[in-house]
Amino acid sequence: MSSTERLADVRSRIAVAAGEAGRQPADIELVAVSKTFGVDDIRPVIQAGQRVFGENRVQEAQGKWPQLKAEHEDLQLHLIGPLQSNKAADAVALFDVIETVDREKIARALAAEMAKQARRPRLYVQINTGLEPQKAGIDPRKCSDFLRLCRNDIGLEIEGLMCIPPFEENPGPHFALLCRLAEENGVDRLSMGMSGDFETAVAFGATSVRVGSAIFGAR
């Protein structure tokens, strides 16, 4: 099956999951995760109508997306991997959405760069719903305090929350937790669900799902 056929399959599955949850498929954004794949792999997916993509690393994205964005002005690029403060300038310059704000140092670095560049990518806070020590993200118990810091002290608008549940656990409770945190803190958007669990995420209210291998194939 080609990447364009897999893309159509994923879109169909999102539509079915949305229908079963009483939602409109148009309310769920598909972020095609193109990390490790090159320009020639990505172009057919763009030609099939996909416009929203995700990358894990700033440096890797810099090697392919300026060219693709020059060819297609309506593309939207999400950073979905950890961000180091020394890459904040590059991230603000290239990405339209940064989903991995997870500590004060990064929040302040982004605020400074956004002011300097007069460019305002949309921001999500990453929540470590499984409290995994090896994984980035805010402790869910500190979510409200961190959002207040970002909004009130640093002056950032936070559009959404993002999570990556523990690989070996049922993702449902993690998606439910993210949904509850969003509701409690007046956050509108939820980035949750990947190739193996995006239909579950749709059922729990995801507004965007990040799907890579189910579209591009195994890495």
Topology, number of strands:
8
Percent helix range? 40-55%
Which runs of at least 5 residues are low in confidence (pLDDT < 50)?
Answer: none
- Tell me the number of helical segments per DSSP (H or I, 4 or more residues long): 10
Keywords, please?
single chain, 219 residues, alpha/beta, eight-stranded parallel β-sheet, 43% helix
Structure description:
There is one protein chain. With 219 residues, this protein is of the alpha/beta class. 43% of the residues lie in helices and 17% in strands. It is built from 10 helices and 8 strands. Strands 7-6-5-4-3-2-1-8 form an 8-stranded parallel β-sheet. Helix 5 (88-94) links the parallel strand 3 and strand 4. The longest helix has 18 residues, at 3-20. It is globular and about 50 Å long. The two termini are 15 Å apart. The mean pLDDT is 97.
